[in-house]
Amino acid sequence: MAIFLPSRHTRQVRACHSNESVLRKFIAYLQVEKGLARLTVAAYTGDIRQFAAFLAERRQLLSAAERPDVHEFLEQLLSNQLDGRSVGRKLSALRQFYRFLLLDGGVRQDPTLNIDSPKQWKVLPKSLSPGEIESMLGAWRLSKGELNRAIAIRDNAMLELSYACGLRVSELLTAKLEDLKLEVGCLLVRGKGDKERVTPVGAPALKRLEEYLRDARPVIAAGKTSPLIFIRCGAKALSRQRVWQMVQEASRNAGRKASPHMLRHSCATHMVENGADLRTVQTILGHADISTTEVYTHVALDRLKSVYEKHHPRAKAR
Predict the structure, then answer these.
(1) DSSP string, 51-108
(2) Which of these is catalytic: 90, 126, 264, 270?
(3) 168 a catalytic residue
(4) List 181, 192, 279, 298, catalytic entry
(5) What is the CB neighbour count within 10 angstroms for residue 274?
(6) Is 270 a catalytic site residue?
């Protein structure tokens, strides 16, 4: 007797339905029992949906979230330059949601319990070591079949460019062919608030981009056209979820769990560690305020202390 397992798409649909069912109950609770205003309910619902999308990238349900998931979600928001007050509001929404689930029997424990307000956090960005980056970028193997091979070349080029330029995921996905100047080795980046900056592109990334544009992109486009550099089959736009999946696959091959934003953090950290001034790093990352860039000096100092304590003969107490 044949046994048919549900496809990945089927599992995703079921997960979506499960989350929506819980959300509908929560909305009714806020409206009827708590008597909250319509705009407040909408804000809370939006915050929960954002967390649900974060979990979906990890193939998790809202009801299966744990404390580290909540903490990493809030850290990601802060590292994306969302202010502590706004992140604190999202934590408040999550607390309301999981307290409701606890009362309703949807969860056995509250994953938001004992998490301090993000306004009190001083979050240092997580980054990969240069060796881990090399392992990650070198972990790709070309697949069999013309299309699979083209997709592997594309993904490798995306990873190289993300790290080379310290790009946000949104900047990577919206980069256009006209923005890339291979002959001079630079990329026009359209950042937050439609602010533009020109970022140098290193030789390894340029090599991967040339290979992708020459050998892979025409195969993926299949005769269709798009202004975007990176596309999926039929010249359609890629999703943020695909970038997350790609980074997870590459980092798993390299033996280290990573997220797309860690490539951006790694770019900045490695530049500071190698002597780059903060103004240059600020320009490359597109930070509006240099105080955002200054966090990388703390990361570099932590690494410096670690190396010192490991290698200096009188660094440790006797």
Answers:
(1) HHHHHHTTT--GGG--HHHHHHHHHHHHHTT--HHHHHHHHHHHHHHHHHHHHHTS-S
(2) 264
(3) yes
(4) 192
(5) 9
(6) no
Active-site annotation holder among 126, 265, 270, 287: 287
**Catalytic residue (one of 154, 261, 265, 270):** 261
Residue boundaries of the structural domains of the chain: 8-120, 130-309
130-309 CATH:
1.10.443.10
pLDDT, one tens digit per residue, over 259-304 is 888 899 999 999 988 888 888 989 999 888 777 777 777 666 666 6
| Per annotation, catalytic residue among 126, 154, 168, 217 | 168
Q: Does the annotation mark 265 as catalytic?
A: no
The residue-averaged pLDDT of 9-38 equals 77
Kindly tell me the burial class for residue 85, based on how many C-beta atoms sit within 10 Å of its own C-beta (0-12, 13-18, 19 or more): exposed
Task: Tell me the residue length of the chain.
Answer: 318
Those residues with Cβ within 8 angstroms of residue 111's Cβ, 6 or more apart along the chain or in another chain: 65, 66, 67, 69, 70, 98
Residue 118 is given by DSSP the state: G
Top-level CATH class of 8-120? mainly alpha
Whole-angstrom distance, CA of residue 50 vs CA of residue 44: 10
Structure tokens at 73: 């979600």
Q: Which residues contact 283 (CB under 8 A, 6 or more apart)?
A: 197
Amino acid, res. 146: E
Is 312 tagged catalytic?
no
Could you tell me the pTM of the whole model? 0.61
